[in-house]
Amino acid sequence: MALDEIAAACGTPCYVYSARGILNRYQAYDEAFGRTPHLVCYAVKANSNLSLLRLLAHAGAGFDIVSGGELFRVLQAGGTPSKIVFSGVGKTSDEIEYALNCRIHSFNCESEPELALINELALKRGLRARVALRVNPDVDAATHPYISTGLRDNKFGVDIADAERVYEYAQSLPGLAPESVSCHIGSQLLDAAPLMEAVDRMVALAGRLQKRGLPIRNLDLGGGLGIAYQPGQSTPLIAAFIEEMKQRVSELGLTIMIEPGRSLVGECGVLLSRVIHRKKNSVKEFVVLDAAMNDLLRPALYQAHHEILPVTQSSRPLMTADIVGPVCETGDFLAKGRTVPELEAGELVAVMSAGAYGFVMSSNYNSRPRVAEVLVEDNRWRIVRQREKFEDLVRGE
Ligand SMILES: *Cc1c(COP(=O)(O)O)cnc(C)c1O
Fold first, then answer.
1. Which of 44, 47, 52, 64 most suits a substitution to test ligand 1, by most atoms within 8 Å of the C-beta?
2. Helix, strand, or coil here: 278?
3. For the chain, does the N or the C end have fewer beta carbons within 10 angstroms?
4. 185 CA to middle of ligand 1, Å?
5. Looking at the DSSP assignment, which residues form a beta bridge with residue 323?
6. Which residues line ligand 1 (CB under 6 A)?
7. Catalytic site residue 109?
8. pLDDT tens, N- to C-terminus, the chain (397 residues)
9. CA of 223 to the centre of ligand 1 (A)
10. Where in the chain is CATH 3.20.20.10?
């Protein structure tokens, strides 16, 4: 599809996603498991647009949710409740009740008080809630500290050293069925080694729990596989990664569950934006775009790198500039000191690999309406979220 046609028809900035790309990646996961019992639960927080969820639901995916709002979205999109796992360190009573009423697959629990709360709410309904403990395997995922979650000193999960005791506690509660173990050590992992280290520790734990008589049936290994944000960056291949995981898990007769987010959608989206101005001061040059940190927060939040390419390719000299948006913050940049082909006012650029943690993190800061989202399917495209209007900004005030 010609991105300039999409931009002309629906304006900029806008996110554009590829349905084929997303389905190909989902199928790569699904097919790599082959006949091994498995469930691929897409991590909804990476991109929760209903049309993307519908696409994945039709392909047979399960979903990993972290809020009642995400549960609502998945149900709206036709997701199957029995394939939904509910993660997160602070599920409220309302959210737990909603999920129990929907008969989701299981809760990934992060503390004893949470187990007690789910037990109480399940018993009130005469239910037994399937739960996993999210275990912290204490491996260093070697990623950005904001998205590293598997070390002992962060808020997520239960220490692996405490896990057996907490499982015994869960087993003692009549409203709970502790049938799974889970972990998620971090995001944007470019090296499979820490993930495999975590797999080994989790498999050993599942074995110990089974020996104690706990009915462990599922091993949920979380998400986290990284994608290439820079040209030439090498990332683990989905098929090889799953193959290695399968080999390490064999024997125990467990269903393997995984929760990929970024690796399904990240590379399948771009943020289209137009250059408003070029501006120079005594030390620096700036390219001012119509997209800003409120549209794509990752550069400002994590110093993340996104390639920025002119949509019309031509041979031209290079320039080095800060690529910034109109928001009134010095932290509002999409790239700093970046060397790109000379960009001209009025031309279109594509911010690459923006399909994950892009639109979902966007806000109305500076009273900027949230942008449109477009889905390309085969040789057609359609708007899957309307650009907000000024009226949308004040609704509810
Ligand atoms: C964020 C998250 C994921 C998805 O991580 P990706 O890096 O996007 O694959 C999976 N599971 C849990 C519990 C998460 O919090």
1. 64
2. strand
3. C
4. 9
5. 287, 335
6. 43, 45-46, 64, 87, 184, 187, 222-225, 259-263, 356
7. no
8. 999 999 999 999 999 999 999 999 999 999 999 999 999 999 999 999 999 999 999 999 999 999 999 999 999 999 999 999 999 999 999 999 999 999 999 999 999 999 999 999 999 999 999 999 999 998 877 666 666 666 667 778 899 999 999 999 999 999 999 999 999 998 999 988 999 999 999 999 999 999 999 999 999 999 999 999 999 898 889 999 999 999 999 777 899 999 999 999 999 999 999 999 999 999 999 999 999 999 999 999 999 999 999 999 999 999 999 999 999 998 999 999 999 999 999 999 999 999 999 999 999 999 999 999 999 999 999 999 999 999 999 999 9
9. 5
10. 88-258
Rounded Cα distance between 108 and 84, Å, is 11
Q: Which two tokens stand for residue 22?
A: 């997303």
Q: Does domain 88-258 have CATH number 3.40.190.120?
A: no
**What is the 138 CA–ligand 1 centroid distance (Å)?**
17
Q: Where do the CATH 2.40.37.10 domains begin and end in the chain? A: 3-14+267-386
Closest-CA residue, ligand 1 atom 3, reads: 223
How many Å apart are CA 10 and CA 51, to the nearest integer? 17
Q: Which residues of 253-277 are buried (b: 16+ CB within 10 A; e: fewer)?
A: ebbbbbbbbbbbbbbbbbbbbbbbe
Three-state secondary structure call for residue 82: helix
| CATH number for domain 3-14+267-386, candidates 2.40.37.10, 3.40.228.10, 2.40.50.140, 3.40.50.720 | 2.40.37.10
Task: Please tell me which residue in 14, 41, 183, 328 is annotated as part of the active site.
Answer: 328
Q: Half-sphere exposure (CA, 13 Å, Cβ side) for 280?
A: 3
Residue type at position 112: E
